[in-house]
Write a structure and sequence with these properties.
D-Maltodextrin-Binding Protein, domain 2, alpha+beta, three-stranded antiparallel sheet, Arc Repressor Mutant, subunit A, 3 domains
Length: 339
């Protein structure tokens, strides 16, 4: 189809041939494409997006027709992304991210939010940090109904029937949607003043092996090696101790009680550091990154209520990280040494 458009200032007509323009790309088709690449099959993508394999296949065909390329190489045994698909993937992901950000920006202005939010979170963070914040959030939005699952075991979005999960660390499943709450949070080594007075403070990271370190177990894996990010590279130290728990809140309580040294997210121990219940033993910013994020199964889960909650929690995390300590919260004159 050819139409004419006149420029301003009596310039001549310019002919635009719309027959060469690509068809409009549907966001749902982009979501199917990105999810299929991550999971490796139409059926897996369809299950995650709560649709049928036939719809997922049709979405890919529609997208390929609109773009004029083959995004996947299909065979009777397997499905793999094509070279064109590899090139297109980062742009599709960026488009979905941009659209989600735009929707969230628009929804920020919506005041009347309501309905249930089914939320999972780690034990220590949930009980001692998030719970007071969530109480404040619900007072601001009384029509919200909170359903909390507090556990250090990673929740499954489908079997546990949750809307969003608050998690530390990088996602193992790249098909999930992660929204940052505290992207620069790290772990820190700390102990109570009582423990330091009784047993002394480690002078080097290697000295941790000589101390009673409080260990955490998750999914039958005991964390007995602590990783640090030094200027010269990553260093891992093997530790041991007489106490292990699968509840991170218990580990923190042991540390406050003087039972040993712990390696925790700075957010988890922020209040104890400010109150002087714990002191940092290596305060030089060498802790392992522990970014905190809100995770959901797919972008359709980002209701106005969840988007409002995410903005609220991110603001609270920023406020916490900017708050100064009430007093001295590290071992005076301590420097990080390695052997």
């Amino acid at each position: 189809m050819i139409i004419c458009m006149r420029y301003a200032e009596n310039r001549p007509f310019k002919r635009i041939n719309f027959s060469v323009m690509k068809k409009i790309v549907r966001l749902d088709d982009l979501q199917v494409f990105v999810t299929t690449v991550k999971l490796g099959s139409f059926s897996a993508a369809a299950r995650l997006l709560d649709t049928s394999p036939a719809f997922a296949s049709s979405a890919i065909q529609r997208l390929e027709t609109g773009l004029g390329v083959r995004l996947f190489v299909r065979s009777t045994r397997r499905l793999r992304v094509s070279e064109d698909g590899e090139r297109y993937l980062p742009y599709a992901e960026a488009a979905l991210t941009a659209m989600t950000g735009g929707e969230m920006a628009l929804d920020e202005g919506r005041i009347d939010i309501s309905g249930p939010i089914r939320l999972s979170m780690p034990s220590d963070l949930g009980r001692n940090v998030l719970l007071p914040w969530l109480n404040e959030f619900q007072k601001e939005h009384p029509r919200i109904q909170l359903q909390l699952r507090i556990s250090d075991q990673i929740a499954d979005f489908f079997t546990d029937q949750i809307d969003v999960s608050i998690r530390y660390g990088q996602l193992a499943d790249s098909s999930l949607i992660a929204l940052p709450l505290a992207p620069y949070n790290t772990r820190t080594v700390c102990a109570s003043p009582e423990y330091v007075a009784r047993c002394g403070a480690p002078e080097t990271l290697e000295d941790l092996a000589k101390h009673n370190c409080l260990r955490f177990v998750m999914s039958e894996q005991t964390y007995e090696r602590w990783t640090f990010h030094l200027p010269e590279g990553i260093k891992t130290v093997a530790i041991t101790g007489d106490r292990i728990s699968d509840d991170a809140d218990v580990v923190r309580r042991w540390g406050v009680a003087g039972a040993g040294i712990l390696y925790k997210s700075r957010i988890d121990v922020s209040a104890d550091l400010r109150a002087g219940n714990l002191v940092e033993l290596f305060p030089g910013g060498i802790g392992q990154p522990a970014p905190l994020q809100m995770v959901c199964a797919h972008r359709h889960s980002l209701t106005p209520a969840i988007q409002k909650l995410r903005t609220f929690l991110a603001m609270k995390c920023d406020e916490m990280q900017m708050r100064p300590a009430d007093g001295v919260n590290d071992v005076e004159g301590k420097t990080v040494l390695t052997e």
